[in-house]
Design a protein that fits this description.
Blueprint: H1 6-32, E1 45-52, H2 56-69, E2 73-80, H3 82-90, E3 98-101, H4 104-110, E4 119-124, E5 127-131, H5 138-141, H6 146-150, E6 157-160, H7 166-182, H8 187-193, E7 200-201, H9 208-212, E8 218-222, H10 223-228, E9 232-235, H11 248-251, E10 255-259, E11 266-270, E12 275-279, H12 287-298, H13 300-308, E13 313-320, H14 327-335
Parallel strand pairs: 1-2, 1-3, 6-7, 6-8
Antiparallel strand pairs: 3-12, 4-12, 4-13, 5-8, 5-9, 10-11
């Protein structure tokens, strides 16, 4: 049997080396974003944010501005009731880079210390009642007689689930404080029982479509959300709207029991001026990027976006677990104080 000439062995080696180089070049090209299997998404860093439904509009604007400043970054935001957002992390093992809550107590009660080591309180809000020109007894609503209107059996109103969403238990607190403020015995229970669960949803923003379609006449919601959607609004007295530090002592008379950290347990939420917060969960995949986003939220540009959407920024910012803040957030917090 004759052996192949030496030059054939060399040619085979050249072909094999060339094929290997081509394969490596194609792999690099695809990872860089070219070719049929690549595309821009293959080089995109994805920042996952869980946030309260009431933050949807400002966080959408924050995300767009942040992406513009950070080419190659894509913000993926998931809106839900704040308590549901927290349970995605604590109960379902979902990983988020940033978690923003409509109530700082949600992070404190459901995530710290196992799933988060610090909590930055950054904004405030207040409860209000949204309605439209088509709402039944809309003219009466403009006179401020809201509690009498909602007791009308022909009037339909919506609220969110207290176990999923802070707006839900804050609505029940408003009922309790209104009973005291207006001196109407039994008002809270009558309002709570008015519609059963027909017009209760996981988060208050889920009810906006029902309001705009005329399925409900009124909706308990945060004032900022009503402003963002251009809705008519019944402003509640500061003694009951949970938005004024001046009436913090009076708010404490309202108490609502909701589900606790583990199944079968419960916690009591006591009324207080509402404060939003943001944290970076321990399980965050892109921690430096998450820190950059939170720092942007706390920056002058970020604060303007939040306040433009009807939500006052907290001054000074308050931090729980401040000793655990990374350096970039220490600097960001210091600038807001």
């Amino acid at each position: 049997m004759k052996s192949n000439p030496w030059w054939q062995h060399r040619a085979w080696l050249v072909y094999a080396t060339a094929a290997l180089l081509v394969a490596l070049a194609m792999l690099w090209y695809r990872r860089a974003g070219g070719g049929c299997g690549g595309g821009p998404a293959s080089r995109t860093r994805e920042l996952v944010i869980f946030h309260a439904g009431s933050l949807s509009v400002p966080f959408r604007e924050l995300a767009l501005a942040f992406e513009k400043k950070n080419p190659g970054v894509k913000v993926k935001a998931e809106a839900a009731g704040s308590r549901r957002c927290a349970r995605k992390i604590s109960d379902l093992g979902r990983r988020a880079d940033v978690m923003a809550s409509a109530d700082y107590k949600v992070v404190e009660n459901l995530l710290m210390p196992e799933h988060a080591s610090y909590n930055i309180r950054f904004a405030t809000n207040e409860m209000a009642i949204a309605y439209t020109a088509r709402s039944m007894r809309a003219r009466d609503a403009e006179k401020g007689a809201w509690h009498r209107i909602l007791l009308d059996p022909e009037v339909r109103f919506g609220r969110s689930d207290p176990n999923s969403d802070p707006c839900g238990y804050r609505t029940l607190m408003v009922f309790q404080l209104a009973e005291i403020h207006y001196g109407v015995p039994g008002l809270a229970k009558r309002l709570e029982a008015r519609h059963g669960r027909k017009f209760i949803r996981p988060k208050e923003t889920d009810l906006l479509a029902l309001l705009e379609a005329g399925e409900i006449d009124y909706l308990f919601i945060y004032r900022s959300v009503a402003v963002q959607h251009g809705l008519r609004t019944v402003l509640l007295p500061p003694e009951i709207n949970l938005g004024s530090p001046r009436f913090a002592k009076g708010y404490r008379r309202a108490k609502v029991t909701v589900t606790g950290k583990t199944p079968g347990t419960f916690i009591t939420r006591t009324g207080e001026p509402m404060v939003y917060s943001v944290t970076i969960p321990r399980s965050a995949r892109h921690r430096p990027l998450a820190e950059a986003f939170v720092a942007f939220l706390l920056s002058e540009e970020g604060r303007k976006i939040v306040e433009k959407n009807g939500q006052p920024f907290l001054r000074p910012v308050v931090v729980d677990g401040e000793e655990n803040l990374p350096a970039v957030l220490r600097k960001a917090v210091a600038r807001v104080r």
